Amino acid sequence: MSVQTFTPREFHRQAHDALGNPQIRANFRKAMDGLMTKRRDVFSDWDLETLRELGANIRLRALAKLPDLLEQLEANCEANGIRVHWAEDGDEACRIIRGICDSHGARSVIKGKSMVSEEMHLNAHLEEAGIEALESDLGEYLVQLNEQTPSHIIMPAIHLNTDEISEILHDKTGTERSRDVDYMTAAARAQLRERFMAADVGVSGVNFAVAETGTLCLVENEGNGRMTTTVPPVHIAVTGIEKVVEHLRDVPPLYALLTRSATGQHVTTYFNMISSPRKEGEHDGPKEVHLVLVDSGRSRIYQDDELLDTLRCIRCGACMNHCPVYTRVGGHTYGTTYPGPIGSILSPHLMGLEETKDLPTASSLCGACGEVCPVKIPIPDLLVRLRRESVGEGRGNVAGAGVKRTRKEAAAWKGFEWMATHPGVWRSGTALAGKLQALMPAKLAPWTDYRTAPKPARASLHALVKQHRRRQQTDGSEGENRS
């Protein structure tokens, strides 16, 4: 299977290629339809809006106190025996993790699912240092074998169908070609079990970090997270600074929203709570636990009272599952760690708006992402904000903002604004455009590079309504005359 490289700068070309790939479209359509149905059904007996409001308030309260909560989290983790490290960016986080590995002479790392580690390219950094890093989440394991990146933040291998997965396992691990899902899962489990036992260090993500108790919470279905955090002698948890919550009682509502929004489950198979390394008399668990808190532009987001809402995200992926753009082009098209609607508002902060300027426009602004977000992030509003900044308007707080419109484009929009605010001119102009529709050019670059050229209607809606009313009056008068 060929391996492709994706970049946000090539979003339009990559989207065109994905739309021309019937297999990708079929894989995503089938998967997304199922996830949307499961989410709808699992919330059918719940007061969803009240729960969403509660989830949003919990996240907003945590963000309002973020600096204090991070200090509280550090103090309680250290009191529990968890060593806390601070990283300004992904590179520093990688150096910290490598340093911990080097101090233990580690040559192999087993990883649980962690989007932050994907964001900072931890695997590549460790491999450059001669340290093998193996993904243990089944989806992550498959895309790693295939030399790809995840295409979804919850289901990394959702772009692959059964036959493609079978071929990957056969080519990379020697298993028999099969369409038996149980056989393939068992084969992968057997391959990974040996690696868990031999790994020097386990690396995981964090779903919720509880400041009140110094507890790290991990949500998972496969048990790989529990193996990663208990079998190796050293456990390193890595997370963005926004994942902190104030109280332990804040976790259950967020957990209920996360599992139902992500996979349509009432609960996941495993919910892990880590508060310390192995204590005296305990028979399992790591001898050391480290927590690496990563900034990577999150502090800059925190300073903006609008874009701050981006940090509410609990990484459920519901916005992707319901997005008409994502479900047709897939996650790799975006060329970023976080694809879909949430990625389109988060990636500009992590990579700069100049690098990702096409992503805020990768939306129909239908509003589905905002409607299903379990913590009520106003994603459509933030997309519009970033669109303005990408053309040099708005507040310009995003790194790399300030790409200017051409003079021709600016003049065109100024003319449209003037027409749209003068009703008489607008009516005359649209009427004339309807009569001259045959002269409308078939190509209006760059609009028609990705869209069908619009054609004005022969008559406006207002004109059609007036015609209809005149016919009704005429028919009514004729009926009275006949009677």
From TrEMBL:
Record GO biological process: lactate metabolic process
Q: Which PROSITE patterns match?
A: 4FE4S_FER_1 (PS00198), 4FE4S_FER_2 (PS51379)
Please give the Gene Ontology molecular function terms for this protein.
Answer: 4 iron, 4 sulfur cluster binding; metal ion binding
User: Which keywords does this chain's UniProt record carry?
Assistant: 4Fe-4S, Electron transport, Iron, Iron-sulfur, Metal-binding, Repeat, Transport
Q: Where is the 4Fe-4S ferredoxin-type domain?
A: 304-333
Q: Where is this region: Disordered?
A: 464-483
Keyword Repeat in the entry? The reply is yes
Indicate what this protein is called per its UniProt record. L-lactate dehydrogenase complex protein LldF
